[in-house]
Amino acid sequence: MILVDTGPFVALFDPQDSEHSRCRDILSATRESLLTTIPVLTEAFHLLTPNSMGADRLRDFILEGGVAVWFMDQETTVRAFELMEQYGDHPMDLADASLIAAGESLRTTKIFTLDLADFRRYRIRRGHRPVKVDILS
């Protein structure tokens, strides 16, 4: 299972994005299931702008099962807020925190992101041990 961040969605569904071809190639080579969170989708739809062709294509991708949507429960929401505090020196937004919290809950470290600087700093907790994010980019 691979968690998907905002950047790849924007690049995949906006052909004018400079990362469009690279993200399309990565996606076509990926054989694992994809999963994302509501905060990531909120951010992606905002950046693609409502009623744009890119937003339409992202909606279709979700509805056709291209990516599953993971919903945060109360415990995971609390964990995401803790992560935002933990990384407060270099602010972590809710979308990023939701992916790290999902990774902890779902026991995966794989994240498809273009945000290399931040995700190289983040760690996914495995018991008491912090584990590096396995960045697919």
Structure report:
With 137 residues, this protein is an alpha/beta fold. The protein has one domain (2-136): Rossmann fold (3-Layer(aba) Sandwich), CATH 3.40.50.1010. The chain has helices at 6-13, 20-29, 38-48, 53-63, 74-86, 94-106, 116-121; strands at 2-4, 34-37, 68-70, 110-112, 123-126, 129-132, 134-136. Strands 3-2-1-4-7 form a five-stranded parallel beta sheet. A two-stranded antiparallel ribbon has the order 5-6. Helix 1 crosses helix 2 (20-29), helix 3 packs antiparallel against helix 6 (94-106) and helix 5 (74-86) packs across helix 6 (94-106). The radius of gyration is 14 Å and the shape is globular. 34% of the residues are buried. The mean pLDDT is 95.
Topology:
Blueprint: E1 2-4, H1 6-13, H2 20-29, E2 34-37, H3 38-48, H4 53-63, E3 68-70, H5 74-86, H6 94-106, E4 110-112, H7 116-121, E5 123-126, E6 129-132, E7 134-136
Parallel strand pairs: 1-2, 1-4, 2-3, 4-7
Antiparallel strand pairs: 5-6
Looking at the chains present, what oligomeric state does this protein adopt? single chain
Helical content band: 40-55%
Second-tier CATH architecture? 3-Layer(aba) Sandwich
Average pLDDT over all residues: 95
